[in-house]
Amino acid sequence: MTTTNVETPGVQPKAPTCFVIGPISDQHAEDDSAAQKVYEESIETFDKVIKPACRKNGIVPLRADEINEPGEITEQICRQLIESDVVIADLSGSNPNVTYELGIRHTIGKLAIHISEKGMSPFDIAGIRTVRFVRSQSGLIEAKRDLVQKLQEGLKGGFRPLTPARILLGLPTDVEAADPHPQSTPDDDPLGVLDAMAEVETHFDSVMTPIAGLTDSVESLTEAAEAIAPMLNEANTDGATIGNRQKVVIRAAELLRPVARQFKEHANEVWNHIEQADKGMTVVLDYVESTPVEQRVPEHLVFLEKISTLAEESRGSIAEFQDVAPALAGLSSFSRVLRGPVNDMYTGLKFLVESAARFEAWEKRAGAILASEQRELPEGGQPADEP
User: What is the reported pTM?
Assistant: First the structure.
């Protein structure tokens, strides 16, 4: 079963209603608190992604905190979840209220679109209509474009109700409706080695930009840390008043905040490229490992050496930041005003550690292949040309 919007000839179609659920927090939360960050990021996603994408489709989205009608807010939210033509759920931050509200919507059988910052989804949404994005300027633009398309597809092309709704409505489940002889699609077909190499090359070329940005960010962080250190030392002198100390801390947070956010965004971009390249890299490594040494082509060696170079650059970026990290480790406990920037820095470090681990796994396999080349080729021998 698919659901579509049906237009009656000669009648102006009514604009679809759209309800937006997300990690809405207190707009009056304390500066640099976790609650304030959640609120600001949810507003950014709504203003830069959801609202303009809805406008492109002639929709006026309604957020839960914008409901002005009298009555119990919980009841109004439930009515919107059940009655709205479209529900867009911002899953970033794994907010339990959002997950609960989305569960209600999943039983209705109406259009629901998920949007989530990469790495922040609360459950497996691989089979559900989802917009995944990186919280950067280009990432938000891509998310808006993707959401425009998914809204168009859902409103005009139709959609299948999710499994909970199909069960409740007595419709065939995926297993019951499965084609005994399904036709493969391009996404189902495994990558060939040339396809995989091209895909990996694309991500390798793209990842160099955020890696270069990381170098700049680390330099900026180092400069900020060096500027902050004497300020904090002065604030800790016996003659300093609490008010003066607080002013120093606020100034330190102002210096750290933009470079910490930039560092996190660059690190997130690096990780996303590495994560997307992993499938292709696995195909390439599997292929080269299974190819006899005498049949391997020189391009294999160049490709594997490139892995080693990128792994070294990635580790270098992490090492530079790790030199700065100990000096910043105590800042979040010094004052809550500093927690936002410090959390951004450690989130960025987490992305880099994950990226480096993936690079090192590739490098380990690549190194073993290169070592086998040296062991098994005759003295002075060269890999054979590709047949």
Answer: 0.49
**What's the CA gap between 102 and 21, in Å, rounded?**
8
Residues 161 and 199 in one domain: no
Give the pLDDT confidence score for residue 182 in this predicted structure. Answer: 45
Boundary (domain end) residue, out of 142, 176, 210: 176
SS3 87: strand
The answer to whether the Cα torsion of 165, 166, 167, 169 is positive or negative is positive
At 256 the pLDDT is 82
CA distances from 385 to 11, 197, 367 (A): 68, 18, 21
Give the integer Cα–Cα distance in Å for 2 and 243: 63
Task: Please give the residue range of the domain that contains residue 160.
Answer: 17-176
5 domain residue, yes or no: no
pLDDT at position 184 is: 44
Q: Which of 104, 139, 132, 138 is nearest to 118 (CA)?
A: 132
Q: Are residues 201 and 335 in the same domain?
A: yes
Say if CB 35 and CB 25 are below 8 A apart.
yes
Which own/partner pairs from 214-220 qualify as long-range (CB within 8 Å, at least 24 positions apart)? 214/263, 214/266, 214/267, 214/270, 214/317, 214/352, 215/317, 215/320, 217/259, 217/262, 217/263, 217/266, 218/263, 218/317, 218/320, 218/321, 218/324, 220/259, 220/262, 220/263
- Residue 7 confidence (pLDDT): 47
Q: Which residues does the chain have with pLDDT short of 70?
A: 1-13, 25-29, 68-73, 119-129, 157-190, 235, 238, 240, 311, 313-334, 374-387
pLDDT tens column, 250-265:
887 888 888 888 888 8
Q: What pLDDT sits at residue 107? A: 81
Task: Give the sheet arrangement for strand 111-117, strand by strand.
Answer: 60-63, 17-21, 86-90, 111-117, 130-133
Asked whether residue 23 is assigned to any structural domain, the reply reads: yes
CA distances from 90 to 28, 46, 128, 129 (A): 21, 9, 13, 12
